[in-house]
Amino acid sequence: MKARRRKLVEKVVKGPARWHRHPETRRQEILEAALVNFAEKGFSATRMNDMARRAGISSGTLYLYFINKEAIFKSLVEESLGTQVSQLTQVMREWEGPSDELLRLVVRTINGFLRSSDRAVLFKLIIAETGNFPELARFYRHHVTDHMLTVFEGIISRGIARGEFRRIDLTDGARMIFSSIMFTAIWRTSLGTLDSESYDYGRFIETKLDLILRGLAP
Fold first, then answer.
1. In which domain, by residue range, is 30 found?
2. Per-residue burial over 176-213, b = 16 or more CB atoms within 10 Å of its CB, e = otherwise
3. pLDDT by residue (tens digit) across 54-84?
4. Do 82 and 52 share a structural domain?
5. Which of 92, 61, 204, 211 is nearest to 159 (CA)?
6. pLDDT reading at 4 higher than 70
7. What's the whole-number mean pLDDT along residues 164-190?
8. What is the rounded distance in angstroms from the CA atom of residue 101 to the CA atom of residue 117?
9. Model's pTM, two decimal places?
10. Closest CA to 140 of 206, 85, 186, 213
11. Boundary of a domain, candidates 35, 52, 67
12. How many domains does the structure of the chain reveal?
């Protein structure tokens, strides 16, 4: 009886075996394994077998969920960065306060995500692999970059219309703001790994916001 009870407790503590996992749970495990492989080896060098091994499943099981590693990459983009962008777009549409506060909110939110989420490495991968995988680069630009630029252009345009910002070129202004945010993703996942001390990305973005908003002031 005691041995039987002990086995039951161990089963509860360990959770369901991998082959009994819910399909969505297993899918997320595959995505997490893929992200680690992409970060360690890059997109080109990562193989489907590598991801299956790290996820603790067979290659055959992996192909039941994703047809290739391009599909895995797209799912990572859509379910993390794409979701963030969609939520911020909705916030912008419903915002009723000053435009400078809206800009601060959006920039801080994105920066917070990029400085804490392991998904920040996806942007570095796109930069590194654009020449080899242009279709993936177009996918990333359509689902993330272009939408974010549209959000920033909308905020600047709103501020100009309300007399809160001076007139500037919307495209240039949006790209300037976007590039400031991308610094966090690029530096944190590349040269930032060599920093002897942790860099304060929050302080950086606050300084950048102050400079941007001073430049936008009427």
1. 1-67
2. bbbebbbbbbbbbbeebeeeeeeeebeebbeebbeebb
3. 999 998 999 999 999 999 999 988 887 777 7
4. no
5. 92
6. no
7. 90
8. 24
9. 0.78
10. 85
11. 67
12. 2
